Amino acid sequence: MIINNFDQLATSPLRKQALLIAEAGLQAIATGPFLKQNLGYNAKTDTLFIKGQTFKLKPYKRVIVVGFGKVALQAATELENILGDRIHSGLVIDIVQGNLKRIVSKVGTHPLPTLVNVTATKEMVKILETCTEQDLVLCIVSGGGSSLLTWPANMPSEHERDITQSLMRSGANIHELNTVRKHISLVKGGQLAKLAHPARIISLIFSDVPGNDISEVASGPTVKDNTTMYDAMAIMDKYKVLDKCNIDHCGFIETPKEDLYFDNVENILFCSS
Which of 229, 84, 92 is nearest to 149 (CA)? Predict the structure, then answer.
C-alpha cells in the first residue's frame, strides 16, 4: 500500500472510502509498475517498446540514461531491470539516493536549487557532451526537475534560488515561473537537447503539470521552447523580482529555436498525474 498511514487516517467509513480512491489513483501511476506495463525490451531483436511505439536500438552503440525529478530514481531503477547491460551509463538527479548498477545516482535539493544541484547537473552535461549520432539517450523528465536540473548561465546559484523563491512568493503561475527559469538556464527550455545533439533522444515525461504541457514539465529541457527572453524580462518586471532580490541583472539567454536540435528528439508524455 502506498499510503503508509492508511489505518490511522481511515477513522470513518467515508474517510476510508476516500482513502481507497486515493490509493487506487496512486497505484495506477506508481512509477515502477507503470513503467513495467508501458515499456518493454526484446534483447534478441534489440527493440524497445514504449506505449505502442517501437524503437530499434541496433543503430546505437551506447544507450545512456539521464533523468531528473522526483521519479527519476525509481524510473532509472526499472530501466536497469528492463534493459540490463544494454545501458552503457548515465546519471539521475532525485531527492533521494539510490544504488544503481550502471547509472550514477545523485541527490539534489527541492523546491529551491542550490550549488549541489548545479554540480550534479554539470556531471550530467559532461556525459551528454560526449554523445554522437551513434548514441541513444533515454531521458527521464519529471516533476521537481526544474529545481534539480540546474545550471544558471550568468549568475551564481544563490541568485537563481532567490529569484525562484521571489516568484513563488509573488504568486507567479507555473508558466511564468518556468519561462524565467528557461531563460536563465544552460539546460532548460530545450538546452539539454542541444547539448546532446546529434544523439537520438527519447524523453519519458512524467507530467505533474495541469493540462500536460510537456514544455512546462521540468521546464522542458528536451522540448523546443516557444517563449523568448523578452517574455522572461516582462515577468521579472511584473513582479519586480530584481528589486526584491537586490540583484542588478540576471543575464537572460535565448533558448534554442533551431529545428535541427529537435529533429531527432522524441518527447513522449509517458505518465500524467
Answer: 92
- State CA 118 to chain mean position distance: 14
DSSP 187: S
* pLDDT at position 91: 98
Phi, psi of 199 (to 5 degrees): -65, 155
Q: Among residues 67, 69, 70, which one has the least CA distance to residue 79?
A: 67
Nearest alpha carbon to residue 140 among 65, 53, 50:
65
Number of H helices, E strands in the chain: 11, 9
Q: How far apart, in Å, are the Cα atoms of 167 and each of 52, 157, 158, 163, 174? A: 39, 15, 14, 6, 10
152 prior amide bond cis, ω within 30:
no
Could you tell me the three cell numbers for 222? 528536451
Residue type, 57: L
Please give the order of strands across the beta sheet that includes 87-94: 104-107, 87-94, 62-68, 135-142, 200-207, 265-272
Q: Are 189 and 182 in contact (CB under 8 A)?
A: yes
71-111, pLDDT tens digit by residue? 999 999 999 999 999 999 999 999 999 999 999 999 999 99
CA–CA separation, 160 and 168 (whole Å): 12
Residue 78, classed as helix, strand or coil, is helix
- Chain position carrying cell 513522449: 268
